[in-house]
Amino acid sequence: MTSAGSGLTLLQTCALSLLVFTGASQFALVGALAAGGNPLTAAAGAFFLGVRNAFYGLRLSQLLALPRAVRPFAAQWVIDETTAVALAQPTRRSVRIGFTVTGLTLYLLWNLTTLLGAVGAEAIGDTDAWGLDAAGPAVFLALLAPMLRTGTERAVAGAAVLLGLGLLPVLPAGVPVLVAALAAPVALWLQGRRGTKTADDGPREER
Fold first, then answer.
1. Residue 151 burial (CB < 10 Å; 0-12/13-18/19+)?
2. What are the angstrom distances between the C-alpha of 191 and each of 17, 42, 160, 186, 197?
3. What long-range pairs does 164-172 form, CB within 8 A, spacing at least 24?
4. Which of 79, 130, 81, 77 lies closest to 104, judged by CA?
5. Most buried of 14, 51, 151, 200 (most Cβ within 10 A)?
6. Are 127 and 1 in contact (CB under 8 A)?
7. Cα–Cα distance measured from residue 71 to residue 16, given in angstroms and rounded to the nearest whole number
8. What angle do CA 120, 126, 128 make, to 5 degrees?
9. CB 127: neighbour CB atoms within 10 A?
10. SS3 annotation, the chain
11. The pTM is what?
12. For the CA atoms of the chain, what is the radius of gyration?
């Protein structure tokens, strides 16, 4: 519904959901396009949000140990939920079952509800009047908030918010998301420097 309300056609909305099976990236892409951003910039922001799935895939490839011919198809289902279910399983067989059942169920329901939402958006007319543009960010924050457990993670999230919101008025749509991604490497670099300094300043044994 958010996608259709941002100007995408029913076919474009359904194709996006079928091909880009990761909600955060979809919302980022649609949000940037709706704000008048460059399509390449919008796609780049969506890409960076989906990079985490590549790291999930590295771990799942060891647990699933799927045949080479099946891996490209399984990669489409590597998302937060399938990874969480797979990692919680005790045996390889249950890992495969959990991953497959979760991936298939979510993929079918996600695309079905995308279709229903796009059709509904066309039926209700001007979606801006309903404030549906806030649905994407709200869902993303709801998914992100429980994952911020350490001080470093909260610092990265806070810095990313400040960068994104601060640069929003001065940069083209989609670019603030790319700049906000720099918060993670900068925070990790500062944390590493603090750790090194602490180790260097620690007590030394007298000889």
1. exposed
2. 37, 30, 16, 9, 10
3. 172/37, 172/38, 172/41
4. 77
5. 14
6. yes
7. 21
8. 105
9. 21
10. CHHHHCCCCHHHHHHHHHHCCCHHHHHHHHHHHHCCCCHHHHHHHHHHHHCHHHHHHHHHHHHHCCCCCCHHHHHCCCCHHHHHHHHCCCCHHHHHHHHHHHHHHHHHHHHHHHHHHHHHHHHHCCHHHHCHHHHHHHHHHHHHHHHCCCHHHHHHHHHHHHHHHHHCCCCCCCHHHHHHCCHHHHHHHHHHHHHHHHHHHCCCCCC
11. 0.62
12. 20
What 45-54 contacts at long range (C-beta under 8 Å, 24+ apart), as own/partner pairs, is 45/174, 45/175, 45/177, 45/178, 46/20, 48/177, 48/178, 48/181, 49/22, 49/24, 49/25, 49/177, 50/20, 50/22, 50/24, 50/25, 53/22, 53/78, 53/79
Record the tokens describing residue 147, joined without a space: 């994952």
Query: What does the H/E/C string look like for 5-42?
Result: HCCCCHHHHHHHHHHCCCHHHHHHHHHHHHCCCCHHHH
pLDDT tens-digit readout, 117-151: 888 766 666 666 666 666 666 766 776 777 788 88
For residues 53 and 50, what is the distance between their CA atoms, to the nearest angstrom? 6
Amino acid letter at 42? A
